[in-house]
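Case study 2.
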Amino acid sequence: MAAPARQAAPLPPGYAERSASYARALWRIASADVSSGNTIEMYSDGDETFDAMIALIDAASRSVELESYILRDDTTGHRFADALGRAAARGAAVRVLGDWIGMRGTSGSFLDGLRRAGAEVLVFNPPGFHRWLGLVPRDHRKLLVVDDTAAVTGGIGIGDEWRGVLLRRKSLPWRDRCVRIEGPAASDLRRTFDNMWRRASGQRPSRQERRTRRVGHNTDIDPGTAPAVVAAVVEGEPGRFRVGRAFHLQCAASERSIWLATAYFIPSLAEVDALIGAAREGVDVRLLLPRKNDHPWVHGYQRRYYRTLLAQGVRVWEWNGEMMHAKTSVVDGRWTRIGSTDFNPLGIAVNFELDLYLDDVNAGSRAEDLFLADLAMSREVVTAPRD
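Prediction:
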């Protein structure tokens, strides 16, 4: 049943002026690199996202960087392997970074084929006699950067699940969200890849380097006058809580709406307080969560929050399809987040994650349209389940 769109209320006086400090706030609380003059396109379906990524790889002339928590040895994975091989044959420098846990089941011969085709391949944090035996942290990021000028990031891994092929049976494709961005933000995203590549190579920074903090740039960008789209890149790192702090900032600044989609919802009490605090002041707070989950136990945990959320005015929907895997938010139809971070302890505090924050009314309007389209294919939870 379609979810009715709330009539957009006019934003209060002074709202635009307050948003001018958004870039500075994201730098100070989340070490975010900010840029303006970007162009974007958002995707919801696996096939259209994969087509856009392959098109970028096929157009690459200098470099291709692919980082993916999930990299399957399946039809989709081989399609990417072929495209990466073609790029390497043209003389582009190709680097592929995967995660050991996310790539379970991917054959060594598949990775060797990538290397023979000319790609450099690294696997992040394999098991061994080192910190936490290699179990945590994970590289949960999803990123493609081409020629340092265009990038795709979001929640989609490289696998047939996102095309409707799951566990060797035909099923609905996983729902997700990604964004293609061209402009200065692509260079910022390339820097995040380089950081993870060094980590996977075992090039740990010295103690002095770890203590040294880089200087922020573009923290004085005013979204009201800067060329669109203003984009901020937030790197989730173990113990930094950057995405959580940025989320609290958005909740505190919201005046009209907070619409959040997340796949594995086990939030901290602080995140619950941020949502219900906004809802109690009349902000339209909506959550989109999966009804089916590839980790079924997560669904049981997420339902434990429903009674508190519903009682405080937060509205909750569950996706009717196979798996709702997106990690997005849109606040006041202006501030949009698309990335890899879920609201659970691993996503917020433990793993390496990557999120792109957009400050642009057109991008926000597009994100709201996509969110409402997803709600139309979901069921609203109106009664909390019994304990």
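Residues 184-200 form the longest helix (17 residues).
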